[in-house]
């Protein structure tokens, strides 16, 4: 509809200029937008305000001339000049209501656009070290990143989801040593207590539980095994329960095989095998969260030598050197002149001892990305804010000054009935994302984690999110969808079981029929519902443009609210003692079905299901 109105306005402007009522000038954007207050029309144009200087007339005079020259169109009921020169368009009911038919005709394609023009965009998110299970913070990046990808796809981008596996560096050795020590302790306990492996596992876990409970370390005698674990590894260890469970797996599969082996050999074996176990666990957790990646990129691969003996890191650094952006200091360290690109200091790539820095990996990794895609979006935790400039500088130096962007995400405060859930990195008591998914459910978890802008902290109250009432936003929205499905089933005369077999699109076809008169929908609540549905396409574009999928949750709640208001005042089906004109019933069923489809589509874009019954 805005396209049609724009044609009318451009034709009116041309006619006024041809008649000498306005001077010749050109305006590119006519400034069409939705008024915040529906009392100001369905659409408004600021063309008169935008062209005042060009025409040397007041906006009100320009607006009056344009309105006078507008051709009559049946879709527009009236046009009003308001304020300093706004041109407000009020659509005829039949025209405004056509959105119901459009939604039903287009189905899951409704709201699609080509603003992305097929641009190949890669979104890299989650990217946790494969040395432990994903925690709740990682879960936020999973929900945010995947939802953003779904939005971008609907807006016409060619999207690639990528997980960067941080499997190179000292943390991998720490991981291996941690499992090795727990493995040795299992056999130590079995020998000292003459117990089974399961009993030894229980002893280690009980000891660790006592360590966690002893917050100030005032009762070391209650957790000697964990104390020994920390002392042997110099407090540089991964201490979660999952490390004990990994050690048990080795004890079960390999028995005593690794007891007499040198520590470095045992560590290397445990590191490599457990790494793959953890990575598989991470994949499973992401899948359970409805977040599947197209590419799992290993940091290690950047250091693998090809047939020529050159690694990807070597090639990237050679490219920077070729471009004149590297230098060596007196001690022999290799530096990148990042200050040439706005960084506050130059960055070291290879230390004096020959070790590569983590930044060297990032340089090579992002250069590799740009060989595959047109644009890169990284989602990082807010604690990485200081890292943005150096990576941006490297991308610019390599020839990609505008193709790299970072979204920063704030943390998640996990609560239970308003009280903080205790977590300690040192004690290894982080809450696993998989645990949260099991307790709360994927729908409520994803909805809640997407519900705020990435730069806002989220208070995730487990008990509140689990509530099955209208105080819980995800329940409120899903209930609206289920309620519409129930109405359509009754309209079609089918049971829930039959509807599950037929599919709701077929159920709605039977309920509504193929021919319905939308001009019968003249109630304010019907107009409000049509208006809300017509805003979906612009919403998707704004979510894609601003990287803001959280707006979808707000929209879903507003749409659900509009439907509940509509249903409260507009009878949809005839009932006992409540007759209803059949044609009006079909039109209202069509409006309800269009709402169902957009609710389902909105929920799908944030990775949440749309239940047919609740």
TrEMBL record:
Short name of one Pfam family: tRNA-synt_1d
Keywords in alphabetical order: Aminoacyl-tRNA synthetase, ATP-binding, Cytoplasm, Ligase, Nucleotide-binding, Protein biosynthesis
EC top class, as a word: ligase
Protein name, UniProt field: Arginine--tRNA ligase
Keyword ATP-binding: yes
Positions occupied by motif 'HIGH' region: 128-138
Catalytic activity field: tRNA(Arg) + L-arginine + ATP = L-arginyl-tRNA(Arg) + AMP + diphosphate
Entry EC no(s): 6.1.1.19
Domain Arginyl tRNA synthetase N-terminal: 3-91
Record lineage: Bacteria, Bacillati, Actinomycetota, Coriobacteriia, Coriobacteriales
BP-aspect Gene Ontology terms: arginyl-tRNA aminoacylation
A cellular component annotation (GO) from this entry: cytoplasm
Family: Belongs to the class-I aminoacyl-tRNA synthetase family.
Main localization (coarse): cytoplasm
Organism: Thermophilibacter immobilis
One MF annotation (Gene Ontology) recorded for this entry: arginine-tRNA ligase activity
Subunit structure: Monomer.
Superkingdom, natural source: Bacteria
Gene3D superfamilies: Arginyl tRNA synthetase N-terminal domain, HUPs, Isoleucyl-tRNA Synthetase, Domain 1
Location in or out of the cell: Cytoplasm
